[in-house]
Amino acid sequence: MKARRICAGAIALALSIGTLSAFSSCGNTGDSSKSEAKKVPDTISQGEIKDAFDAEGAKLEVLTNRTDRVNDGTLDAFTDAFEEAYNCEVQYVGYTDYAGDVATRMGTDDYGDVLMIPDDVKIEDLSSFFEPIGTYDELKDTYRWADKKMDSSKNVYGLAYGGTATGVLYNRAVWSEAGIETTPKTADEFIADLKQIAEKTEAIPYYTNYKDANWTITQWQSLVISASGNSGYENKLLTDKPELFAEDGGYYPVYKLMYDIFSDPALIEEDHINTEWESSKVWFGEGKIATMVMGSWAIGQFQEKAENPDDIGYMPVPITAADGKQYAETSADYCLGISKHSENKDLAKKYVEWFVKDSGFASNEGMIPTAADSELPDNLSEFKDAVLFEKDVTPDELLGKFDEIDKESGVGVWSGDTDNFKIKLAEAAFAGKGEDEFNKIISDVNKKWADAEAKVLG
Amino acid sequence: MKRKKNSQGLLYWMKTYDGQKFYTSIIFLIIPVALLVMFTFIPAVNMVTYSFQDRDQFGINPEFVGFKNYVTIFTDPDYLITFKNSLYYLVGSFVQQALALLLASILCAKIRAKGLFKGVLFFPYLMNGVAVSIIFQRFFMKGQRGLSPEGTLNSVLGLFGIDPVMWFDPTRPALANCCLVFVSLWRYIGFDIIMYIGAIQSINPDLYEASDLDGANPWQRFRYIVFPSIKPIISLQLILAVKGAISVFEIPYIITAGNYGTSTFVIKTIETAFKKKSVGLASAMAVVLLIIIIIVTLIQKYFFRESDDEPRKSRRKGAN
Questions:
Q1: A367-420 pLDDT, tens digit each
Q2: How far apart are alpha carbons B182 and B160 in whole angstroms?
Q3: Where are the beta strands (DSSP E) in A129-259?
Q4: CATH code, domain with B91
Q5: Which B residues in the span 225-284 are in contact with A, Cβ-Cβ below 8 Å?
Q6: Which among A296, A316, A306, A317 is positioned nearest to A365, based on CA atoms?
Q7: What range does the domain containing B23 cover?
Q8: CB contact under 8 A, A121 and B168
Q9: Is the same domain home to B42 and B87?
Q10: ipTM for the complex?
Q11: Are residues B116 and B199 in the same domain?
């Protein structure tokens, strides 16, 4: 009898421990013990840490989308210097579906100390979630893109960890094998070049990565401002209220180019539902794929997988603006913000400033560093003829309006869900439905946009 | 009787059989009930509230919009298409029932290696939906010159000199949907077969003997003995098919991600909530799904109360 009771107790205990450990093992923690210790590359210089204070072993939880760099230990290696200087512990938690998972976590009060600000948080809601880092006037001389997460009273809630230029990723070896000497300047030249590649080489001229369309197709959206040649294009859309797909704007040429490429089966892969993103990096390096539209953040990842990293080239957007120049927009990646509910706000602030300015992480990734006085990375060498610009600051009265119209209209310029106009365009193009269908889809989007604009701006 | 014991105090009552029965059941119930309330009822009630709001995933300043979300679901062509896609699965499940009944009748006849065939047919049902989807993704692959080989189906067709077919073709969403329905049929048919075998085996063998004596052929035997006896099971399966058709999710989600016009109601709900971040609208969709399921369940319950002459069988249905 007694033995049986003990037995039952033991089972109950085991069950409850099992349940507890199941709960505590939730979340994708970056376990540094698993990954081999990595070192900061010699080519990267980390800034010196001045006036550090003793945080007495405080813990910072940092939420990041860079699961790759959490798992291979790079982030931990970069952070060693900071941890030592401040006597603290920084723990990275990586999320594969960052925007989705963290948004859910932000429904509670516990969302780490430092986190990348999901772009779905509206500008006016920033103050409900994040601690201000400083005012725009204080920060604008030190950091690029300081206005990205700025509210109407000029408080800055997040600083970018790095930035990218918009352009097109291409394999130099393949392009020169096809006999193309100069990078294309217009959409027509670009398509002609792709056709030449199709004829003269074995490579697939353009790889759509359509299986992962929900994000790969949004890469095209990042070309829009460059294509418009106007750093204030987004503001212009709100003040002058042209059609979203006005022919002299940024949207029309970009999506027309996409539509034309996707419409020609000779230029893209045959089986677009079974594309493989991870393998495509390898194939790209092997010269089996010639071109992809990707942000410059992808350069590092593609070089890593290539036999000859020098083959991976990056060219400016092949669309010439009305004034005959080629433009390239540089834009911020995720911004690091400090949780309003953090217990170590001072340390978190130091960490954010150190990470974006002195950690050297962005240069290591081939991104444009956030520090205003830093140099452009080598991989942007082909941009010397293009005019680089940053998107204009949105005037106070229009702050957040673009996103509001975007959401109200359901257009979703930055999303790739199955109802999105980009997916509709791509599928119409794959099906070879031609010019009429293109015009039908864009006029539908124009109408949705105009209606929402009238409603939001009055 | 009870009152008399009560007068001797609560402590005494706790020691009686009645008292022990009472508090033991409370203690046993408290954890599951608490879990059920916390993780099912409270979220469900919240969901209904959300469905009348214009709300993003952070839930800041939700705005009451009445039935606007519901109107959107039934008027916006982007949402209506999912109901159309459900029809493919509905038709598919009728085919599935017919096929399952046929196979079950064969398996109930005297054939060799019956157990093996049952096992083989039931096996897909045991497999995880994600694994099934990945297998069929490879199965239907078109392949890419120079990069990846063609999929299983196309290489088999290739042996007969047929050119590789693009199964998931944006020009032919009907074909793509049919392929997905096929996968779903392949996966779930095993369960139906087992259900039908169970029903067929519970028929009194005397009836067969009698029909043999009267010189019935197999078709007559099926038509006049088997079919009437398993009719309740067939109607149940058809009702469940409606439920299944509207709540298809993982197979299309993994194979096509809802592209190429293969989006289903549940995929659309997830996209609305987590990609478009319209939690209000998504909640309304979930409520619509819930209502459809409730209606179908009520029909099912009503139906089986009417013909409840075989209680043993209906209990088996309940387990489903």
A1: 888 888 777 777 777 887 788 888 887 887 887 888 888 888 888 888 888 888
A2: 22
A3: 130-131, 134-135, 155-156, 158-160, 163-165, 167-171, 204-206
A4: 1.10.3720.10
A5: 256-261, 263, 267-268, 271, 274-277
A6: A296
A7: 2-50
A8: no
A9: no
A10: 0.72
A11: yes
In chain A, the N- to C-terminal Cα span, in Å, equals: 79
Q: Is residue B65 part of a domain?
A: no
What's the structural domain count of chain B?
Answer: 2
Query: CB distance A431–B171 less than 8 Å?
Result: yes
Q: Partners of A90 in the beta sheet?
A: A60
Residues B179 and B273 in one domain: yes
A–B: how many Cβ contacts below 8 A?
Answer: 94
* Cα of A171 vs its chain's centroid, Å: 21
Residues B165 and B16 in one domain: no
Instruction: From chain A, pick out residues whose CB is under 8 angstroms from the CB of B147.
Output: 204, 269, 279, 283, 288
Residues of B in contact with A282 (CB under 8 A): none
Residue A327's φ and ψ, nearest 5 degrees, are -115, 155
Among partner residues B147, B170, B276, which is closest to A427 by beta-carbon distance? B170
Q: Do B123 and B37 belong together in one domain?
A: no
| Residue A149 contacts residue A117 (beta carbons within 8 Å) | yes
Q: Tell whether B7 is covered by a domain.
A: yes
Is-contact A408 A370, C-beta < 8 A?
no
Q: Do B226 and B85 share a domain, yes or no?
A: yes
> How far are the Cα atoms of A115, A247, A389, A439, B170 from residue A254, in angstroms, in the given order?
32, 10, 18, 14, 22
C-alpha B80/C-alpha A456 separation (Å) is 27
Pairwise CA distance, residues B241 & B161, whole Å? 37
Asked if A271 lies within 8 A of B141 by C-beta distance, the reply is yes
CA-closest candidate to residue A294, choices A167, A161, A163, A205: A167
The verdict on B184 and B261 lying in the same domain is yes
In a domain, B60, yes or no: no
Give CA torsion, residues B280, B286, B291, B295, to 10 deg. Answer: 170
Which of A126, A129, A272, A417 is the best substitution to test chain B (most B C-beta atoms within 10 A)? A417
Q: Compute the distance between CA of residue A451 and CA of residue A410 in angstroms, rounded to an integer.
A: 11
Enumerate residues 6+ apart whose C-beta is below 8 A from A49.
A81, A82, A85, A86, A354, A358
Cβ-nearest to A417 among B143, B147, B275: B275
Write the CB contacts of A443 (distance below 8 Å, at least 6 apart in sequence).
Answer: A245
Q: Is residue B14 part of a domain?
A: yes
Go through the domains of chain A in sequence order and give each one's CATH number: 29-162+333-383 (3.40.190.10), 165-331+400-457 (3.40.190.10)
Cβ contact B257–A270 (<8 Å): no
**B258/chain A closest Cα distance in angstroms:** 6
- Tokens representing B76 are 């916006």
pLDDT along chain B (320 residues), means of 10: 59 84 90 94 91 81 85 86 87 90 86 87 89 89 77 87 82 88 91 89 86 85 85 84 84 86 88 84 91 86 64 45
> How much is the mean pLDDT over chain A?
83
**DSSP class of A209:** -
Q: By C-alpha distance, which of B129, B223, B228, B147 is closest to B183?
A: B129
**pLDDT on residue B163:** 82
Minimal CA separation from A419 to chain B, in Å = 6
Phi, psi of A317 (to 5 degrees): -55, 125
CB-nearest to B276 from A274, A412, A430 is A412
Query: Rounded to two decimals, what is the model's pTM?
Result: 0.75
CB spacing of B166 vs A271 below 8 angstroms: yes
Among the listed residues A447, A440, A444, A391, the one whose alpha carbon sits nearest the alpha carbon of residue A236: A391
Find the residue in A nearest to B77 (Cα): A419
B10 shares its domain with B155: no
Where a domain ends, among B13, B33, B50? B50
Q: How far apart are CA A384 and CA A380, in angstroms?
A: 8
